């Protein structure tokens, strides 16, 4: 039979993408904090304010997705895709818990 798969390999598994999105959500906050240097450099540029905001949002989302995919692939290799996705859920819950706890301190 002829296979009509467009993509093959580890990225063809839906569990990898679900886990990558979970990891991206969990790592979005901690990874967007170092982008303050980019924000500071963009404030002195001649780019309009609304484009600066779009660029900052897009760069933080892409960074979180790239790191989330790399984390999911690494954990999938070590633990298997199902376990890596489950670990992503745990990290997401832990990240939300830490965010809510730190919000009360400030």
**CA-based gyration radius:** 17 Å
Q: Distance between the terminal alpha carbons, to the nearest Å?
A: 62 Å
Q: Strand count, sense and closure of the main sheet?
A: none
Which structural class is indicated by helix and strand composition?
Answer: mainly alpha
Global outline? flat
β-sheet strand percentage: under 5%
As residue ranges, the low-confidence spans are none
Instruction: Summarize the amount of helix as a percent range.
Output: over 70%
Number of helices: 4
Mean pLDDT value:
81
Total beta strand runs: 0
Secondary-structure element order, as H and E? HHHH
Task: Give an account of the 3D structure.
- Keywords: Membrane, Transmembrane, Transmembrane helix.
- The chain crosses the membrane at residues 15-35, 55-74, 80-100.
- There is one protein chain.
- The chain has 106 residues and is mainly α.
- It has a domain at 14-80.
- The protein contains four helices and no strands.
- It has helices at residues 14-32, 36-43, 49-79, 81-105.
- The protein is flat and about 50 Å long.
Task: State the gist of this model.
The chain crosses the membrane at residues 15-35, 55-74, 80-100. This protein is mostly helical and 106 residues long. It has four helices and no strands.
Secondary structure: elements and pairs:
Blueprint: H1 14-32, H2 36-43, H3 49-79, H4 81-105
Keywords: Membrane, Transmembrane, Transmembrane helix
Transmembrane segments: 15-35, 55-74, 80-100
Please tag this protein with its features:
single chain, about 110 residues, mainly alpha, flat, transmembrane helix, membrane, transmembrane
């Amino acid at each position: 039979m002829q296979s009509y798969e467009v993509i093959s390999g580890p990225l063809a598994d839906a569990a990898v993408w679900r886990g990558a999105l979970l990891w991206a959500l969990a790592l979005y906050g901690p990874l967007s904090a170092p982008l303050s240097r980019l924000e500071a450099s963009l404030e002195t540029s001649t780019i309009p304010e609304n484009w600066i905001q779009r660029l900052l949002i897009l760069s933080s989302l892409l960074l979180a997705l790239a790191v989330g995919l790399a984390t999911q692939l690494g954990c999938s290799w070590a633990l298997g895709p199902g376990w890596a996705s489950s670990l992503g859920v745990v990290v997401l819950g832990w990240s939300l818990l830490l965010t809510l706890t730190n919000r009360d301190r400030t």
